[in-house]
């Protein structure tokens, strides 16, 4: 019950009519109380005036007979007074002497001469009030002579007619106030529903916006603009239009982002495939120049095979990334040798000395394809930054169960934007930087690796590959 009452209080369409009805009920109770109190006061005053006149006339007529104690004369006066005062219906009248014996009574059989006056006929404070459930009320009047008490008159007055008037008045008030309360409650409910319609209409429109779109209100349904409801509706339409424009903008931005991602992905694929293609072209040139030398021919054939396998692995890694699969092949010494062969030709073409240092087991618990891409990109960037006659160092060694790759050159140092891209501090690589460093950063993050950058002079990049169960962070050192 309390839950439903709390819910009703939060519903303006119910709470306001209930409040109106409650105020009407309270008002009707107060008005009814005032009317009934006024009626009771008027009846009491009128009753006292009538009974006072009745007792005054009776006491005046009976006074000398009470002094002489003549019962027949007193009885005759009582009988004639009851017939004379038709406005008062007296059931019983007693003339009582000072010793509380009955001198005369309107019913001499019940109360004979010289009998003891009944206790209920004696005066008690409040006995003359009409606020009683009894159908009769006793009224009293003392009779004195020269300051001495001679006796008293007591009359039992029928007040059922006065009580009936009061009850009818109460019933009429209840009926009238109930009818008026129901009418006002119904009118209040209709007025509130009419007043609350704009808010309820807006609530329904908002409830229909589950998909994030607001349906604007048509122009024919818009109230005048200079009203509160008209201003609220127009503000709602402005919000609906703003949300629609934002949704269109987000859709356009998402489409542009999708196209940018496709372009970036295509560029990354071209960049990754171009790395082994350089080594393949060098192997073809080696065959063309030294085709008669069986050893050189076999060496070039192995290089071509490894290059094609590298392209195959790139395509395979792309498919695994697209399908959500993992690169499960671990790094071996053959993969490290492939990287050296591919970079050696590029270093020779640029007239750069390649310092290659490998220390570790034949197999590392590191994804092979990710290591190949990271190492090739870093070494190609180092070769591009090193002037002819310079040196590029590559060190590969086991480190804490993982692998540590060190690439160092003696170029001018890594630019700030390239450093930020490599450390993952920029969302995408700029045109001047290319996709190589961006790919290194993303691959290292996906593996949970750590990148350190040192220099100038030159640039030293250290990448630590953790084992598959390690959780390392990316950090930078100046």
SSE ordering: HHHEEEEHHHEHEEHEEHHEE
Roughly what fraction of the amino acids lie in strands?
15-25%
Discrete helix count: 10
Looking at the overall shape, the CATH architecture of the largest domain is 2-Layer Sandwich
Using DSSP, what is the number of strands? 11
CATH third-tier fold name of the largest domain:
Heat Shock Protein 90
Q: What name goes with the CATH superfamily of the largest domain?
A: Histidine kinase-like ATPase, C-terminal domain
What's the N-to-C terminus distance? 70 Å
Q: What's the overall average pLDDT, rounded? A: 77
Overall 3D form: rod-shaped
Radius of gyration: 57 Å
- Structural class from helices and strands? alpha+beta
CATH class of the largest domain: Alpha Beta
Pick out the low-confidence regions: 469-478
Could you give the order of strands across the largest sheet? Answer: 6-8-9-11-10
């Amino acid at each position: 019950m309390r839950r439903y009452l709390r819910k009703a209080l939060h519903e303006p369409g119910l709470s306001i009519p209930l409040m109106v009805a409650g105020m009407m009920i309270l008002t009707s109770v107060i008005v009814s109380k005032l009317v009934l109190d006024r009626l009771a006061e008027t009846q009491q005053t009128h009753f006292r005036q009538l009974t006072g006149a009745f007792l005054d006339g009776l006491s005046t007529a009976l006074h000398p007979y009470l002094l002489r104690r003549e019962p027949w004369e007193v009885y005759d006066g009582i009988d004639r007074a009851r017939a004379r005062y038709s406005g008062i219906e007296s059931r019983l009248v007693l003339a009582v002497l000072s010793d509380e014996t009955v001198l005369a009574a309107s019913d001499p059989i019940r109360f004979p001469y010289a009998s003891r006056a009944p206790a209920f006929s004696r005066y008690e404070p409040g006995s003359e009030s009409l606020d009683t459930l009894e159908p009769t009320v006793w009224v009293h009047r003392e009779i004195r002579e020269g300051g001495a008490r001679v006796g008293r008159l007591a009359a039992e007055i029928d007040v059922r007619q006065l009580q009936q008037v009061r009850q009818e008045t109460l019933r009429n008030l209840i009926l009238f106030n109930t009818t008026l309360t129901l009418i006002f409650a119904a009118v209040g409910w209709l007025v509130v529903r009419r007043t609350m319609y704009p808010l309820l209409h807006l609530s329904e429109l908002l409830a229909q916006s589950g998909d994030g779109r607001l349906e604007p209100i048509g122009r024919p349904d818009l109230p005048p603009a200079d009203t509160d409801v008209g201003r609220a509706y127009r503000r709602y339409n402005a919000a609906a239009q703003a949300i629609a424009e934002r949704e269109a903008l987000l859709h356009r931005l998402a489409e542009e982002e999708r196209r940018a991602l496709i372009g970036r992905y295509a560029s990354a694929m071209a960049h990754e495939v171009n790395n082994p293609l350089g080594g393949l072209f060098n192997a073809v040139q080696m065959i063309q120049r030294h085709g008669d030398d069986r050893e050189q021919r076999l060496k070039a054939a192995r290089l071509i095979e490894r290059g094609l396998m590298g392209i195959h692995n790139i395509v395979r890694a792309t498919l695994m990334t697209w399908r959500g699969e993992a690169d499960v092949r671990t790094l071996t010494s053959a993969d490290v040798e492939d990287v050296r062969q591919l970079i050696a030709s590029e270093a020779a073409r640029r007239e750069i000395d390649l310092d290659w240092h490998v220390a570790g087991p034949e197999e590392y618990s590191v994804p092979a394809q990710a290591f190949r891409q990271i190492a090739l990109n870093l070494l190609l960037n180092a070769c591009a930054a090193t002037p002819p006659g310079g040196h590029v160092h590559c060190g590969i060694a086991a480190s804490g169960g993982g692998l540590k790759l060190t690439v160092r050159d003696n170029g001018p140092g890594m630019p700030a934007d390239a450093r930020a891209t490599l450390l993952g501090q920029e969302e995408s690589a700029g045109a001047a930087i290319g996709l190589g460093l961006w790919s290194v950063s993303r691959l290292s993050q996906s593996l949970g690796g750590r990148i350190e950058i040192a220099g100038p002079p030159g640039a030293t990049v250290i990448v630590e590959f953790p084992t598959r169960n390690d959780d390392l962070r990316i950090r930078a050192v100046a």
